[in-house]
Amino acid sequence: MINSPAPPVRLALIGAGRIGTHHATAIAHDIHSAELVAVVDPRVEAAQKLAAPLGARAEAEASGVLSDPDIDAVVITTPAALHRDLIVEAASAGKHVFTEKPITTELDEAAQCVEAARRAGVVLQVGFNRRFAPGFIAARRAVADGRIGTPQLLRSLTRDPGPFGGEPARIPLWTIFLETLIHDFDTLRWLNPGAEVDTVTAHADALIRPDARDDGFLDTAMVTLRFDNGAFATAEASFSASYGYDVRGEVFGDGGMATAGSGRTSDMEYFGPGGVAYDTSRADTDLLHGAYVGEFKAFVEAIRGGQPDIPTGDDGVKALQIARAAIVSIQQSRTVRLEEVTR
User: Fold this and answer.
1) Which CATH number applies to 131-287+312-341?
2) Cβ(304)–Cβ(5) below 8 Å
3) What digits encode the pLDDT tens for the residues 238-285?
4) Rounded to two decimals, what is the model's pTM?
5) Measured by CB atoms within 10 angstroms of the end CB, which terminus of the chain is less buried, N or C?
């Protein structure tokens, strides 16, 4: 007897911006166990432009997909300030939820999201894509199988491609911690399994746009973490790397060291009159496309009752706690104990 394949998980994507466009296309083309049913965005033309080539319908309001019994889950790619309401409403409607990072920007709201998902019995996954990049997976495995020994020094960095062309006045306050370094905070926790952050010390400045410093804009940051197993970690970010998007990680212990991350999009090297070169990318959606696909495959597996290693709502809360501690550290020019922002 041949078993029939499981029906695809039916997804609606909410938010047709840059990352939403990538995610919708990846789901439609690369996730064969899922079906993109709808794209939601109040900018109806943007929703239609994205949905039509992918065979999905376009809607202006989330209420339609949340009340649709044929939709199993939602993928939230809206601005972070909108995450809380959408997560809670989707969970209350019985929909599984994948949300881009951060889970929210406020700790009380993040706790509400986790509780709503728990109460409804639905999957809540946060989009920390580095957990699904092959090099980072291999580094985590090296820690888990003992090859690194006891982690002692860890490092994670995110550098956005330059030249920086944003308008500081339009970038929300504390973006470098809440939107950029949030990835690194999760990565460092994940590469030091079983340990949690005790203290946070942050330094940040406007080195790329010093003219915006007096308005509170920050474009360069370094954060030091101390874990409860004694390990030290650093997380750093810049909004303008001249050579392109740069994401790397490192974990060093008494048994060895593992590094992860590369600007290469393939292992091809070109040897020519100008020297040696290799393929690179200036976009996160190119460099980490496979990781994005991997996180959606894991999301579908979790919905179907599997046990993949996914970043949960609780992981989203813990990364946000570190970000909030870093903000307090900047505001008060001191080291902050994590418990100060979790009370």
Assistant:
1) 3.30.360.10
2) no
3) 999 998 889 999 999 999 999 999 877 777 888 878 878 877 766 787
4) 0.95
5) N
